[in-house]
């Protein structure tokens, strides 16, 4: 499947943390069309196993979380405005005038209210969820026929191509990595490997890496790689803290990660002539790797991140070549595990 089409489809599906079932259904359908691999739905996690697990073989877990940031309906007031709470790390600065979709008994579109500049003194800035209201055009009575407290809310924005390889949309964090795992499944299903592999599409990363914690405990791998996104350089960012789009996946190096696995990823990149970057962190990574490294008696863990601009906004921007090179790197890494 064309990776651009795969990323386009995945980014537009709604799947706020705790409500990822639509994403799981789509990925399951694609993998079953492309391969004969078995998909196991465990809660909101999806696990795809490649190769038979044997005592004398290493077992590798490759993970991508599939949830996105969003909101949850807390209350509907007497004027019909929806009062939400955030799910995951929300950037309040970008909320006014955003288009959203409320997922109830049917999907209800809405817009986040904002005050026209003519009626403000320039200080009308949303700095907390307490000030957020969603307008659907319905009255309270009409709206309560379709939605209720507990419904999730996602951003309602289209996938767009900015250039031949640069694309933008919502939930690129981390659906681009889910696309990478899906392509990886297709590649590896045709090969004889020296190890067995579990591809984990994990839930609820944005609210505490919950899916990764339970899944890793159950799978109990020897090696785990968290495939996620990380900061790409923009005009207002510090080069020391960012990677560069189009220059390949970012291999993690941190005292909380296995240097052995970091070095093996670097060797895999060099062996396959895949461009790569190093992402140096001084402690916790903020990814599912933080759960993997301390699961059970500990798992040799590393991160492999795709550079992304404008993280946790509805216009997250990525380059398709970085996704393709991440597939290439991970495939070579798995071939080298013995």
CA-atom Rg in angstroms? 21 Å
Biggest β-sheet strands, sense, barrel: 8 strands, mixed
In total, the number of strands is: 17
Mean pLDDT: 95
Binned, the helix content reads: 25-40%
Number of helices: 8
In the predicted model, the low-confidence regions spanning at least 5 consecutive residues are: none
Question: Given the C-alpha coordinates, what overall shape results?
Answer: globular
Strand content: 25-35%
Structural class of the helices, strands and pairings?
alpha+beta
Which series of helices and strands comes N to C? HHEEEEEEEEHEEEHEHEEHEHEEH
Task: Trace the largest sheet across and list its strands.
Answer: 1-2-12-3-13-16-14-15
Distance between the termini: 29 Å
Describe the structure.
The protein is of the alpha+beta class and 338 residues long. Helix content is 26%, strand content 27%. It contains eight helices and 17 strands. The chain has helices at 3-12, 21-34, 140-143, 172-188, 210-219, 259-271, 289-292, 320-336; strands spanning 39-42, 45-50, 59-65, 70-76, 82-87, 99-103, 107-112, 134-135, 152-155, 160-161, 166-169, 196-202, 223-231, 250-253, 277-280, 300-308, 316-319. The strands form three sheets. The protein has an eight-stranded mixed sheet, sandwiched between helices. A six-stranded antiparallel sheet has the order 5-4-9-6-7-8, with no helix packed on it. It has a three-stranded antiparallel sheet with strand order 10-11-17. β1 (39-42) and β2 form a beta hairpin. It is globular and about 65 Å long. The two termini are 29 Å apart.
């Amino acid at each position: 499947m064309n990776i651009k089409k795969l990323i386009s489809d995945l980014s537009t599906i709604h799947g706020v943390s705790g409500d990822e079932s639509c994403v799981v259904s789509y990925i399951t359908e694609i993998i079953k069309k492309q391969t004969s691999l078995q998909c196991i739905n465990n809660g909101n996690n999806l696990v795809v196993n490649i190769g038979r697990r044997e005592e004398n073989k290493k077992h590798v877990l490759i993970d991508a979380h599939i949830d996105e940031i969003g909101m949850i309906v807390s209350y509907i007031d007497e004027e019909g405005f929806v009062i939400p709470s955030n799910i995951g790390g929300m950037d309040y600065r970008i909320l006014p005038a955003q288009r959203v979709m409320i997922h109830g008994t049917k999907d209800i579109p809405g817009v986040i209210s904002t005050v026209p500049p003519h009626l403000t003194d320039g200080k009308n800035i949303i700095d907390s969820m307490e000030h957020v209201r969603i307008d659907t055009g319905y009255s309270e009575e009409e709206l309560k026929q379709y939605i209720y407290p507990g419904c999730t809310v996602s951003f309602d924005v289209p996938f767009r191509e900015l250039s031949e390889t640069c694309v933008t949309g919502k939930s690129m964090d981390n659906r681009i990595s889910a696309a990478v795992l899906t392509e990886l499944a297709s590649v590896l299903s045709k090969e004889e490997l020296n190890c067995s592999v579990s591809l984990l599409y994990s839930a609820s990363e944005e609210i505490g890496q919950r899916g990764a914690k339970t899944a890793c405990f159950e799978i109990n791998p020897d090696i785990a790689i968290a495939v996620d996104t990380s900061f790409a350089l923009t005009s207002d960012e510090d080069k020391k803290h960012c990677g560069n789009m189009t220059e390949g996946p970012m291999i993690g190096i941190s005292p909380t990660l296995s240097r052995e696995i970091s070095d093996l990823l670097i060797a895999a990149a060099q062996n396959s002539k895949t461009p790569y970057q190093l992402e140096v962190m001084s402690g916790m990574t903020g990814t599912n790797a933080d759960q993997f490294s301390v699961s059970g008696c500990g798992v040799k863990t590393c991160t492999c991140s795709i550079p992304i601009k404008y993280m946790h906004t509805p216009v997250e921007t990525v380059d398709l070549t970085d996704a393709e090179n991440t597939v290439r790197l991970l495939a070579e890494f798995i071939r080298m595990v013995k």
